[in-house]
């Protein structure tokens, strides 16, 4: 009995030690189930087998995940290479202007091929001679297909060539227009260098005018004018700024004096021709000064008749009677038609200077106007005649107009002339200065 109890205690101690060793994963071996192929070099228990099975499953899952990742990476690399290849082909096609043409064969060719295959299958069952005929027909259909493909290829190639030529011509036209309005590199460089030199010159000029600017701020009129002259040639915008500043601050006396000097017109003696509507032949003498001058003109008619409906004058009323110097009595049956046949005028006046090239003139004088009226009359014997009645008169003339000097030697003039403040006549003339003043 004691031996049995001792053996039980001994076995319990061994089991407790092995369980502790198994739990703590020490160097002890599990002695419950012998298994030499478990890779532990000893005996394992069921718990160890479950653990080993889980570890193997986890390792297999990890290996599968790694294989899947490697396969996905390989597929992605393959797609990337395909995309890069397509991009390279597209770039090459753009450079060489080669367009890939995908041709769809006509349905008739497919139907013929199907019918040929059916015929060949049915005839092969009957005899070998029919199989040879079907092979020859298939070869002929292949030749037809090849020829059709070549025709379609040629058509598409010609169309692509035409489109390419049109696109190239348009690109060349656009490039030409852009180049026409785009300055060259040399021109741009020249302008940039010129701009830099201008900026440097402006800085140097501004530094040299610092004293003048200070004096101008203190109210010196001459300093404003000196600054204006310094900037006028190279920097007109700055020159105008200082001129406006001088006028706004009330320091523009030098500017006003210079303006008066510039506005002065040299004295001139102009001799030329002057022509009017009724009196086309005339001469003019014009003297211009800075203020008042002298103007004289003479015009005469050289033609016999100058009819103008605007100057018609009504004569006696219808059926009015008229007795001539011989005692003959007439009855007018129509109104008089006035016809001005000539004009001779002489006028004297003065010119006045407005600003440098412009003058105005006015003058008065006298003249004669040759005017006749034509009327139909009937005498006591009912004989109809046309009577010419002389209505010429002497009167006063009035002239007014403008004079424009074109330099120091040439001047033009134009205006209007009246007789007795009626019968207007437009006149114009050209004169030359034979004694210009410097």
UniProtKB/TrEMBL annotation:
Q: Which residues form a coiled coil?
A: 53-96
Keywords for this entry?
Coiled coil, Signal
Q: Which domain of life is it from?
A: Bacteria
Q: Where is the composition biased (Basic and acidic residues)?
A: 306-315
Question: Where is the sequence biased in composition, kind Polar residues?
Answer: 317-326
Compositional bias ranges of the Low complexity kind: 107-147
Signal peptide (residue range): 1-21
Annotated region (Disordered) at 97-147, 306-326
Q: What is this protein called?
A: Outer membrane protein beta-barrel domain-containing protein
- Tell me what organism the protein belongs to: Flavobacterium granuli
